[in-house]
Specification:
The structure holds two protein chains of two kinds. Chain A is mostly helical. Chain A has eleven helices and no strands. In chain A, helix 3 packs antiparallel against helix 4, helix 5 crosses helix 9 and helix 8 crosses helix 10. Chain B is built from five helices and four strands. Chain B has a two-stranded antiparallel ribbon with strand order 1-2. Helix content of chain B is about 75%, strand content about 5%. The radius of gyration of chain B is 62 Å and the shape is flat. Classes of the chains: A mainly alpha, B mainly alpha. The interface between A and B is large, with 56 and 41 residues.
Chain lengths: ~210, ~280
């Protein structure tokens, strides 16, 4: 969930930074990158379940931010604006991956049922309990797998709402949809996830029994 | 009750983004429809499970923003698959080999020479030259060269000597003029320095006098004030002393008076008793 940490508060009150960045202040731009890189990376990571792709998309997002921030009219809309850029790059990259799958040397195929999350997750909690840590990684892997099985439009909305804490109107603006459509698609996505979780035998009880 | 919330309303309810009035309506509906209630509860559980996925911590790369381009400096957390590296190297080697094959690239090494080139190797001609002619030619060339070199060295030597002599003369005269100028300047500087010193000294002494005057005045003031205060204190304590002495005197007088009264009273009583 979207926790109210110091970083989040700094993100919300970054108006001055955005103003300076618009005027071409490199330091302000780098501070904005520092504030938002983690969120954008995690968004892209949940979208692709792949570190390299997530890094690539995040970097392209911030390069695009640098080039286009002058055109951002309303500093209050920085957040949806940034997510719009990363979402566009995600979709673009997804299409490219689909085209190039045959020649790709990497193993980032969607059919790959390996739980790649296990290798890459660095769980913040449970650091001193290997068993718990392992279970957490396994669960994370299963959740990532389930997210990967959603259709793109549902996956995007679920990640935006559930993990990035965007408001419905913000998501609607990013995706050029009506708020009502966003909510309906989120409902459909959650319902699909519920079915997938049941198939994978992840229920509230098993989760709380294990963790 | 005909109210039935749509999926969008239910989602807003799940995320707690409904107004109180709408929330009450939805809750009323759910309490009457166990199926819908179960569905919402299951979605809530799904949300809880989703919430168990933590964020990954990554170090943001440093972006060097420039007017023309952006350079991204990563902090070593990239993972390039080993297979990709190995295949890359293999492909490069294959390309080099193919290019070599098609351009007839060859390296030939014989007992005296190493030749690298494209196409057929050209064989060097092995005709022996006339050694006597060559010797003569070489000796003539060496003799001529030696003569040239000697002549040129002598010219240069002369030239250098002349140059050195003229330069040393120039330098001596420059040094002399410089020395004279320095001496003049030194005299001027010393005079200026002395007059400046005198002025400064005068100023310092004036300042010192005025300062010490002021200080003395202050000290005298202080002394006078202290002394008058001391006198005042002394007067006060004397007055207090006198007051105390007066008080003592008054007390004594009163005691005396009382004693006298008592004695008188006792005399009167004894006189009265004797009269009876």
């Amino acid at each position: 969930m979207y926790a109210e940490t110091l970083l989040d508060i700094a993100m919300v009150h970054a108006d001055k930074l955005i103003m300076s960045a618009k005027e071409g202040d490199d330091t302000a731009l780098n501070k904005l990158v520092g504030l938002w890189y983690n969120r954008i990376y995690n968004y892209a990571f949940k979208y692709f379940n792949d570190h390299d792709l997530a890094t690539e998309v995040s970097q392209r997002t911030f390069i695009s931010m640098y080039k286009n921030i002058g055109q951002l009219e309303d500093t209050d809309k920085f957040k949806p604006w940034l997510y719009k850029i990363v979402t566009n790059f995600c979709h673009q990259e997804e299409r490219r991956q689909n085209r190039n799958r045959v020649v790709s040397f990497t193993v980032s195929s969607k059919n790959d049922k390996e739980v790649r999350m296990v290798a890459t997750t660095k769980a913040v909690d449970h650091e001193f309990n290997p068993e718990r840590s392992f279970q957490q990684k396994e669960l994370s892997g299963l959740i990532m797998q389930a997210l990967g099985e959603l259709i793109n439009e549902q996956k995007t909305i679920v990640i935006m709402k559930e993990y990035e804490g965007l408001k419905f109107w913000e998501i609607a603006e990013i995706l050029n949809l009506s708020e009502s459509t966003v909510k309906t698609r989120l409902y459909a996505g959650l319902n699909q996830l519920r079915i997938l979780f049941t198939e994978k035998n992840i229920t509230k009880e098993t989760v709380y029994y294990e963790l | 009750m005909n109210y039935k919330p749509g999926k969008d309303t239910l989602i807003a309810y799940l995320y707690g983004e409904l107004s109180q009035e709408e929330k009450n309506k939805v809750e009323g509906y759910l309490s009457e429809n166990p199926t819908a209630q179960r569905e919402v509860a299951e979605l809530q559980n799904t949300l809880k499970v989703l919430g168990k996925l933590p964020d990954l911590e990554v170090t943001p790369p440093t972006f060097v923003f420039n007017r023309d381009k952006v350079v991204v400096v990563e902090h070593g957390n990239t993972r390039i698959p080993m297979l990709k590296i190995v295949m890359g190297i293999a492909a490069s080697i294959l390309i080099v080999m193919l290019v070599g094959y098609f351009t007839h690239f060859r390296i030939t090494y014989s007992n005296q020479s190493l030749s690298i080139g494209y196409g057929e190797a050209a064989m060097p001609s092995n005709q022996p030259a006339n050694t006597v002619d060559i010797d003569q030619l070489v000796q003539q060339a060496i003799a001529k060269n030696n003569k040239d070199v000697l002549g040129r060295m002598e010219d240069m030597n002369n030239h250098f000597n002349a140059e050195l002599a003229s330069q040393s003369r120039e330098r001596a005269s420059t040094i002399n003029t410089l020395l004279e100028r320095t001496k003049e300047m030194n005299d001027n500087v010393i005079q200026m320095y002395v007059s400046q010193m005198r002025d400064e000294n005068r100023r310092v002494i004036e300042n010192l006098f005025s300062l010490s005057n002021a200080q003395q005045q202050r000290v005298m003031n202080d002394v006078l004030t202290d002394f008058s205060q001391y006198l005042e204190n002394q007067r006060q304590s004397d007055l207090r002393l006198i007051q105390a002495s007066f008080n003592g005197l008054k007390d004594n007088t009163e005691t005396n008076l009382q004693e006298t009264n008592q004695i008188l009273a006792s005399i009167i009583t004894t006189v009265n008793n004797q009269n009876y």
